[in-house]
Write a structure and sequence with these properties.
Layout (H helix, E strand, L loop, with lengths): L13 H4 L1 H11 L18 H12 L7 E7 L6 E8 L3 H24 L1 H31 L2 E6 L2 E8 L3 E2 L2 H5 L3 H56 L6 H24 L6 H4 L13 E4 L9 E4 L4 H5 L1 E2 L2 E3 L2 E3 L5 E2 L2 H5 L3 E4 L1 H5 L4 H11 L1 E2 L4 H4 L9 E2 L2 E2 L3
Parallel strand pairs: 2-14, 7-12
Antiparallel strand pairs: 1-2, 1-6, 3-4, 4-5, 8-11, 9-10, 13-15
Helix pairs in contact: 2-3, 4-7, 4-8, 5-7, 7-8
Length: 398
């Protein structure tokens, strides 16, 4: 032989070995419309895998660069997950930025609610509300006293009692000694003042709700000062991506509404994964699940799936066992081969695909609909009746 190793030889041109096949492959790869996929058939050892791989490696540098895709929590509905699309190479940066944000926000929220200014404003609101109630009761007592009826505070509540000489309340014996006509006058007057007392008491919950709203607004102001600058620092890096800045605005709004609950949950929180999808509101809800990451160079992906099961193709949602119950969250959504190949090329062995239950039907359904919807095999066969996450479907182009 005229060479020491096959590495010394130049690559063979597939077009010289299988000219018609290569021409057909080029024709198929040049068709961007949906519905035009390639089926390559050949004898074992004919080099069909190698030829397809070589042609795809030439094609992957052409065409539009693929996108990065992330799942984030839908704050309006925690059982749903939103998709965020970012230019290739920037999904990992958002993932890191939000992880750093989560690491910092707990101390920022604690500082906001434990500051002297916040506590002072809260105590002032509570003192004003208490004084308002006491002033209203005092005024009611003065008005009733002018008519000869005293308002008394007892361990069991408030009562009205008739007075003598406008100074002291009557004893039961003194009241019993009054003429019936005078008793009736007192009874009528007391009933009238009881009605006024009941109306005033009914106002107290409304006043307290107003105070609670004012306290919540004070908390929102404190959180805006403590957390707002962290959000703004992140938004600067994504000013050209309206979907991402919109999500960051939603994060800020959710913190303003849920800051007190987050502050309380951090005192008892012990499990990151379960708090994401339990009833506890956790700062981990602001993390970002980087579903698909592509290189910043814009090279289109070439994915070969050797085990094309349904879930390996369309992805899956993993679960944790928490207190005997299966729970999940948006961070446990895992992408499949269709997610990773989106914007590029997916290579499958037909025999392996057809040998997997539901995989062929799932692949056809995905290609026809133009979107990847993560499906649970247990749901497809009717074995699951638990509440499931509903990730937003991924638009497909491969």
């Amino acid at each position: 032989l005229t060479f020491a190793s096959t590495a010394d030889l130049s690559e063979l041109d597939p077009a010289l070995i299988h000219p018609r096949a290569v021409e057909a492959l080029h024709l198929g790869l040049d068709m961007p419309q949906s519905g035009y996929n390639l089926f390559v058939l050949g004898e074992a050892g004919s080099g069909r895998h190698a030829i397809v791989t070589q042609l795809l490696e030439q094609e992957c540098h052409r065409g539009a660069p693929p996108a990065d895709w992330c799942y984030v929590l839908d704050f309006a509905d925690p059982t749903r997950a939103r998709l965020l699309k970012l230019p290739c190479g920037r999904g990992a940066q958002l993932h890191r930025d939000m992880q750093e944000f989560v690491d910092e926000i707990t101390s920022a929220i604690a500082a906001a609610f434990e500051s002297d200014e916040y506590r002072g404003r809260i105590e002032s609101q509570q003192a004003e509300e208490k004084k308002r109630e006491e002033d209203a009761l005092r005024q009611l007592g003065q008005d009733s006293q002018d008519t000869g009826i005293a308002l008394l505070r007892t361990p069991h509540g408030f009562v009205f009692a008739p007075m003598k000489d406008g100074e002291e309340t009557m004893s039961p014996e003194e009241f019993a000694a009054l003429p019936d006509e005078r008793k009736d006058e007192f009874q009528t007057s007391i009933h009238a003042w009881l009605d006024k007392l009941h109306k005033l008491m009914n106002e107290f919950p409304h006043w307290r709700r107003e105070v609670q709203k004012a306290i919540k607004d004070i908390g929102a102001d404190a959180l805006r000062l403590a957390v707002g600058h962290l959000i703004e620092e992140i938004k600067v890096n994504y000013a050209d991506l309206p979907d991402v800045t919109g999500y960051l605005d939603a994060v800020m709004q959710d913190i303003l509404e849920s800051g007190q609950s987050i502050h309380e949950s951090t005192k008892t929180e012990d499990d990151t994964e379960t708090t994401l999808y339990s009833s506890t509101i956790s700062v981990h809800r602001y993390r970002v699940n980087l579903l698909v990451e592509n290189p910043a160079s814009g090279e289109r992906p070439i994915i070969y799936e050797d085990n094309p099961t349904l879930q390996n193709l369309v992805g899956r949602i993993e679960h944790h066992v928490h207190m005997g119950t299966l729970v999940s969250n948006f961070m446990l959504i895992k992408g499949g081969a269709l997610h990773r190949a989106n914007g590029g090329f997916l290579v499958l062995d037909a025999h392996k695909l057809l040998a997997q239950a539901y995989a062929w039907d799932g692949l056809k359904r995905t290609l026809r609909s133009g979107q990847v919807r993560i499906e649970s095999l247990a749901e497809l066969v009717g074995l699951s009746s638990t509440v499931q996450l509903e990730p937003e479907p991924l638009p497909l182009d491969l």
